[in-house]
Structures are given as C-alpha cells and as structure tokens.
Amino acid sequence: MYEQAFSFSQIGYGTAIALVMLAIGVLFVLPLRWPGIAVVAIFTFIGMWGNFFVPFMLLLSPERLPASVSIFTFFSQYGEPNYGQLAAYSLIYTMPVLLLYLLLSKKLGGAFALGGAIKG
Q: Angle 109-111-114 (CA atoms, 0-180°, nearest 5)?
C-alpha cells in the first residue's frame, strides 16, 4: 500500500535530496564541529578516568577499584608513600589520557601547537 502511494520518480527524488543533505553535513558541517567534539571527548574521558570519590565510597572489594582509587593504596598507614611504585603506576595511569590527546590533537586544528612564543 505504501509503495503504491508514491511513484518511483518521487522516491528517487527524495533519496537524492537526502543524499545531498548527508553530503553537506559530512563535507561542510562535520569538519567545522570536529574541534568541539574532540574537546568534549577529552574532557568527558578525563572526568570519568579521574573519578575518585564515588568509587572510593561505594566499592567495597579491592579488586574492583578503578585506577584512580588504586593510587591511594600506595600510601602506608602513616602516610608515607612508596615512591617507586607510586611513580611507576602514575606513569601508567596517565598513558590513556595522553594517547587520547595525541589522537584527537589533529582534530583540534593545531590549537595546541606547543610552539610557545616562536616568531616566524
């Protein structure tokens, strides 16, 4: 019944318009929005990755604790940290955030050039 209501030329015309609108969105709109999408992705990931308080209060089993809470276990009962393990774990803990930044830095459009005040 639905197929009989429209001729094939009308369906083809509607499909062509939909494809043109999709092409406009992909070719023109999406490249303009990539920097914003990249920044939101970085901030969202860092917010979830660095969450400490909620898992610290709600999770009771030590094997389910996230990495942000596991760093807290490197401190002894009297507050003296084990610096070697803390430094190694901190380097491993920062790797996913650095990798995400390096992957998305191309989408940011060179906003973080890390060039400083180099002239020329």
A: 125
